[in-house]
Write a structure and sequence with these properties.
Strand content: under 5%
Structural class: mainly alpha
Number of strands: 0
Shape: globular
Radius of gyration: 18 Å
Largest sheet: none
Distance between the termini: 6 Å
Length: 275
């Protein structure tokens, strides 16, 4: 994998951990997530005006991915309502790289070298171990965290195939994100009503910033998947748990144990194998 792809994906990982921390720290996470999606939709639509649309063969994938992202949002919000960032985030992110590697092999015909596969396994194992307490996987809302990981794998594969068919990574990204950014507010309005969504309250600016950061982070990932194996890109992206652990410790009052530091070391070594 080219060095610049590795570097870009690690930057995306830092950005991804940052917007998840903003979401986890919010009082009403469903509202915050929906405001993020509105910001994504507006920014994506503005950028799309200056780009030629992606190839028609990719449109179906963009629509499916937008729907999967909504499911991911709902499960992510529910998992954060049940547990700490340092517990739920590793499960959600750690379960996806191996799922993506398997699915990419089945649906996209990808083959990964043994060294990279070992690295992916180390990254996933190290990430999931962050959620253990003693010898138990004590995570409130575990089904939601695992469900979030499944949605991550599903939309990553969909976007990985879609962006390759599109011939234009940036155009595909903004069109898909614009659709996603419209669908999520529609779901919110169906659940709580329009008045609840469009009432400005504390955290609005933070949510808007989080949305723009999330758009940039995932745009980088889609660009990376345009020319690199999906499983490897996903594993590198999920090193965001390293940043999430540090953010949780310094800004959210969460603990940073020896176990977490050892797990982070395993993740870092796995990243080297992938590279």
């Amino acid at each position: 994998m080219p060095f610049y792809i590795i570097l870009l994906t690690l930057v995306a990982a830092l950005l991804h951990a940052s917007w998840n921390a903003l979401l986890r720290g919010g009082a009403d996470r469903l509202w915050s997530m929906t405001v993020m999606c509105l910001a994504v939709a507006i920014a994506s639509a503005a950028i799309a005006l200056f780009l030629a649309p992606p190839a028609k063969a990719s449109w179906m994938y963009a629509v499916v991915s937008a729907g999967l992202h909504v499911g991911y949002n709902l499960f992510l919000v529910r998992s954060y309502e049940a547990g700490d960032l340092g517990q739920t985030y590793p499960i959600a992110r750690g379960s996806s790289p191996l799922l993506i590697t398997i699915a990419a092999s089945i649906f996209a015909g990808e083959r990964i070298e043994a060294g990279a596969l070992l690295g992916i396994a180390m990254v996933s194992g190290g990430i999931i171990s962050l959620a253990f307490k003693g010898r138990r996987l004590a995570v409130p809302g575990l089904p939601y965290a695992l469900g979030t990981g499944c949605f991550i794998a599903a939309y990553s594969i969909t976007d990985g195939i879609g962006v390759r068919l599109s011939g234009a990574p940036m155009a595909y990204t903004v069109w898909m994100c614009a659709l996603w950014g419209v669908l999520m507010p529609s779901v919110y309005i169906g659940l709580r009503g329009a008045d609840s969504l469009f009432t400005i309250r504390p955290g609005f600016t933070t949510a808007v910033i989080g949305g723009l950061v999330s758009l940039l982070a995932y745009g980088i990932v889609i660009y990376a998947m345009f020319g690199a194996p999906m499983g490897a890109v996903s594993a590198l992206r999920e090193t965001s748990v390293l940043f999430a652990a540090l953010i949780g410790y310094f800004f959210l009052g969460e603990t940073l144990t020896v176990r977490k530091m050892l797990a982070c070391a395993v993740i870092a070594i796995g990243t080297i194998f992938i590279g």
